[in-house]
Write a structure and sequence with these properties.
It is built from 10 helices and 11 strands. By secondary structure, the protein is α/β, with parallel strands linked by helices. Helix 1 packs parallel to helix 10, helix 6 packs across helix 7 and helix 6 packs across helix 10.
């Protein structure tokens, strides 16, 4: 089959432009006497991935002119201690938005933690109030990864209307909200959506029918070249750490897409890294700006 030339969906460059837009709005807010938006992150333990993600979020806050605070707990923190900290942040008018980095240690009920966050400060969009509002298209905080993907599709003017989108993965954070957002009326949106997961028997057959594939299973290089229709749009959410002795830190990030095989068949494709990841972080910044607006304007 003839190879076609593909366009890389540059999340890094796109997020840099959005960060400039946010920084301009923050500067205008400061000039009118309003405080800088303030994001607080709670980090439990020392998981390498979580450390990296939280450090990126804090660094990005500085780049756009936000204030940020990092609250750390050790792995043996009790659920009660975490709930007390969340209550304190819910009541602190100086904290506009906050996140509890997941995953949490096994002895903590993650859902209980998520539901303790005031939905008005839930800039991760994980609280059932925000999830429910998102699913019926009401104003809310939307989970950052699917929101970032929507923004990437919008900025590249990819017409999704009437397209068949296959979402690989059914997580609460990515797969389910991604399917809902692509189902909404409008563009991006108006898709026919199929959600595949570990119990789907005919994934290859379904993928071959897809105009758009969002791969969010966390299985390195799951999507192969022979599973993709020529001209498909490919969004890779995977960021699994795989050992790599040639790297300084001993690992590299692997996407859920076998890029070398899939890219020559795609019309648009996200790289890993530099695709969905930076768009996720900038979406968290947009949610935090929105929280600050709602609490201060
Ligand atoms: N763990 C993986 N992704 C996320 C995210 O978007 N937010 C939080 N809080 N934890 C995560």
């Amino acid at each position: 089959m003839a190879e076609q030339s593909y366009t890389l969906l540059d999340g890094k460059g796109t997020s840099a432009r959005i960060k400039e837009e946010i920084a301009q709005e923050v500067a205008a807010r400061l000039a009118s006497g309003k405080p800088a938006p303030h994001l607080v992150a709670i980090l439990v333990g020392h998981d390498g991935g979580s450390e990296t993600y939280v450090a990126s979020k804090i660094k990005t806050c500085a780049e756009v002119g936000f204030r940020s605070s990092l609250i750390r707990f050790e792995d043996d923190v009790t659920q009660e201690q975490l709930l007390a900290e969340i209550k304190r942040l819910n009541e602190d008018p100086d904290a506009h938005g906050f996140i509890v980095q997941l995953p949490l240690p096994k002895h903590i009920d993650e859902q209980k933690i998520i539901e303790a966050v005031d939905p008005a400060k839930d800039v991760d969009g994980f609280h059932p109030i925000n999830v429910g509002r998102m699913s019926i298209g009401l104003p809310c905080f939307v989970s950052a990864t699917p929101q970032g993907i929507i923004e990437l599709l919008r900025r590249y003017e990819i017409d999704t209307r009437g397209k068949h989108c296959v979402v690989l993965g059914r997580s609460n954070i990515v797969g389910k909200p991604m399917a809902q957002l692509l189902l909404h009326k409008g563009n991006p949106g108006d898709c026919t959506v199929t959600v595949c997961h570990s119990r789907t028997p005919n994934i290859k057959e379904l993928c071959l029918q897809a105009d758009i594939i969002v791969a969010a299973l966390g299985v390195p290089e799951f999507l192969r070249g022979d599973m993709v229709k020529p001209g498909a749009v490919i969004i890779d959410v995977g960021t699994t750490r795989v050992p790599d002795a040639t790297k300084k830190n001993g690992f590299r990030l692997s996407g859920d897409v076998a890029f070398g095989e899939v890219a020559p068949k795609a019309s648009f494709i996200t790289p890993v890294p530099g695709g969905v990841g930076p768009m996720t972080i900038v979406s968290l910044m947009l949610n935090t700006l929105q929280a600050a607006r709602q609490q201060q304007d």
